[in-house]
Amino acid sequence: MDLDKAGPGPGSARSRGRLPAQLRTLVCERAVLDRADGSAKWTQEGSSVLAAVYGPRQAKLQKEDAERAVVEVVFKPRAGLQGHEDRSLELEIRGILEGVIPLGMFPRTSVMVVLQVLQDDGGALSCALNAAAAALVDAGVPLNSMFSSVSCVLTSDRRLVLDPDALEEQAAAARFCFTYPHHFDLTTAVPAAATGATTASPGADDASATAVVGESVLGSRCVGAFSGDELLDAAALCRRGCERVATFARLSLAKSLQAAGGA
């Protein structure tokens, strides 16, 4: 199991000492389940989601597609039975995953992603998507693009704040969650030898490469009352947040590979 953390800086007017555009502390643990093909636990302070990936494997006959893989998503709430909201989230997450997995490579198979909410202090959807991304990588599932997700809210005084906790979500006039594709510009990477960074596996010298977040949105969830300009501002804020999430995820993966190589 590999665990890595990235914490926010000091000072702010928000209740927990964060700036409006500041993320909560990120923690990613990989390979946490023995029986899954890939797994990851993604935590953003009080919010935590465990993701397990099974497949690609032979699809059940009634779900089999002769030309492509079938993506199945199960979203389990922290407590109680699934409700309408949970099933709605399953559809949204499945749509995003179908957009990044090259389904045509695996006809007649299924890829199942099971997401279990362990703690929910705001931003559960973005936390689940980031957990799914890490688990898919851990399972070795090919992806057309990596992706990351961030939430934000519009406060009652019309200010945007990134990565809200549950209290901020409850008091918000509107809530947003955006998911973007990303890649890394290796031409801007600083060699590890020059920075003193620890490297891991081929390409780990590029751990300091710049995260490039695409302009196209893979998925969005917007709830509440907001103007067109506020929607665009929210998308831009989440896109900047996704850049930081992507950078953290890459560093976490590099450390995971280093730990596996040294085992």
From TrEMBL:
Nucleus in keyword set? yes
Query: Which GO molecular-function terms appear in the entry?
Result: RNA binding
One GO term under biological process is: poly(A)-dependent snoRNA 3'-end processing
Compartments in which it is found: Nucleus
Q: In what residue span(s) does the Exoribonuclease phosphorolytic domain sit? A: 22-142
**What is the residue range of the signal peptide feature?**
none
Top-level taxon:
Eukaryota
Q: InterPro entries given for it? A: ExoRNase_PH_dom1 (IPR001247), ExoRNase_PH_dom2_sf (IPR036345), PNPase/RNase_PH_dom_sf (IPR027408), Ribosomal_Su5_D2-typ_SF (IPR020568), RNase_PH (IPR050080)
Q: Name one GO cellular component term.
A: nuclear exosome (RNase complex)
Coiled-coil intervals in this record? none
Q: Which UniProt keywords apply?
A: Exosome, Nucleus, rRNA processing
User: Where is this protein chiefly located?
Assistant: nucleus
Which family is it part of? Answer: Belongs to the RNase PH family.
Q: Could you tell me what this protein is called?
A: Exoribonuclease phosphorolytic domain-containing protein
Tell me the organism: Chlamydomonas reinhardtii
